[in-house]
Amino acid sequence: MKSFLLGLILGLLAIPVAAYVYFKVGNPPVAVADQPFPMEQQIVKVPLQARIENEMPQLAPIQATAANLEAGARIYREQCSACHGFYGRPSDFAPHMYPSAPQLWQVHGKKKAVGVSDDPPGETYWKVDNGIRLTGMPSFNKVLSTTQMWQVSLLLSRADKPLPPNVVETLRHPAELNAAVAVPAPKSTQNKNTQNKD
Fold first, then answer.
1. Residue 20 — left, alpha, or beta (φ > 0 → left; ψ -120 to 50 → alpha)?
2. What is the pLDDT of residue 26?
3. Contact 125, 56 (CB under 8 A)
């Protein structure tokens, strides 16, 4: 019986020692391109979703007015578009993040939802407010006001609906906007510049 208990104790001690050795000198998946641990996403997703459902606000304190959507679009462009993409143009580096950053203006999934438009605005607000550990999603509660976080959340909840033209223009990629407003210099100016070089 003593040998059984000793073996049990040694076996239980061997597990944390083996885990320590693996993480210290092994090759655990820490790079973005590494294969994840088995069931890693499922293990993380269950407690995250449970916490969001328990804590997310049920009602927005503001309405999705044209002014709030425009303000949300400006905030999104400044704070979110690098990772989550522009209207009609995904982020260049989002697919190379782990987990990859969802593109909030693209259709995805079986439901064919656009971005997070199938989530309640309160869920999006919770994510913006709190961030999500180990994903690259920061907490914006020290960067944006409560109203600003709601403006972005309400905008994203309407990503599958027609938006006012000024909101759509605000959400477009800068290169597209520059190309749309680029006006060639008058020929007389071009000729003067060429003559001055000679």
1. alpha
2. 73
3. yes
Task: Indicate the domain borders of the chain.
Answer: 64-180
User: 78-106 b/e with 16+ CB inside 10 Å = b?
Assistant: ebbbebbbbbebbbeebeeebbebbbbbb
Q: What does the pLDDT look like over 70-98, one tens digit per residue? A: 999 999 999 999 999 999 999 999 999 98
Q: Is the pLDDT of residue 189 over 80?
A: no
Distance from C-alpha of 12 to C-alpha of 30, rounded to nearest angstrom = 26
Nearest to 80 by CA among 124, 29, 16: 124
Note the pTM of the prediction, 2 decimals: 0.76
Cα-based distances in Å from 102 to 21, 57, 176, 178, 198: 35, 22, 21, 26, 53
Return the CATH class of domain 64-180. Answer: mainly alpha
Rounded CA-CA distance 15/17 in Å is: 5
Structure-token pair, residue 70: 């425009």
Instruction: Identify the three-state secondary structure at position 76.
Output: helix
**pLDDT tens, 39-71?**
777 777 889 999 999 999 999 999 999 999 999
Token pair, residue 153, equals: 């959340």
